[in-house]
């Protein structure tokens, strides 16, 4: 795969603590890992599945998916996505110029159509050479609050201390990173950068595409939506 210009990577480890065996949970008869892999394949990506589990690797049956058995060091709860991707692309000799698209299993409502839309937007703007990375997010129009010392304050008052936004339509929009899609170049990962680095492009997803599975409640909500 070292001559590939663009690849998709799914990281699916064992050992999740908040939701046991999260990456092997099923929605609509398919595991979260299967859904992520198929979203990439459906968008025309060459896919890599990287895992510390033979069971997770073996349950993906598509012949055109490259499987990599990752070390436990880069698969435990303290390992970052960047360290897991770095090991994977180094061992598979992925070229520095290759674009890496990370599709997390925890975003099961992100479809191949979502990924196609993302790639279409990215291809239309990357020719300018202005962007180093891209990530998916949800547009937030409601005010956010944060705890400062013993009190709660509006986030906008911290970001814009000299401004007064009395109407929501006057407030600058905020964007919530949703974990569905990330893009960077292999060289950025090898240089120690995070996935979101340099000049960033934000790809907007709707609320359903942005559902992230972190708790039992999240999973049950996604199942209910799928059955609706």
Largest sheet: 7 strands, mixed
**Runs with pLDDT <50, length 5+?**
none
Computed over alpha carbons, the radius of gyration is 19 Å
Structural class: alpha/beta
Shape field? globular
**Given the structure, what is the number of helices?**
7
Number of strands: 11
Average predicted local confidence, pLDDT:
92
In the CATH hierarchy, what is the class?
Alpha Beta
| Tally of structural domains | 1
The helix content is 25-40%
Helix-strand pattern: EEEHEHEHEHEEEHEHEH
List its salient traits.
228 residues; alpha/beta; Spore Coat Polysaccharide Biosynthesis Protein SpsA, Chain A; seven-stranded mixed sheet; two-stranded antiparallel sheet; 7 helices; 11 strands; globular
Structure in words:
The protein has a single domain (6-138, 175-227), classed as Spore Coat Polysaccharide Biosynthesis Protein SpsA, Chain A, CATH 3.90.550.10. Helix 1 (32-42) crosses helix 4 (112-125). It is of the alpha/beta class. The termini are far apart. The strands form 3 sheets. The chain has a 7-stranded mixed β-sheet, with helices on both faces. Strands 2-3 form a two-stranded antiparallel sheet. The chain has 7 helices and 11 strands.
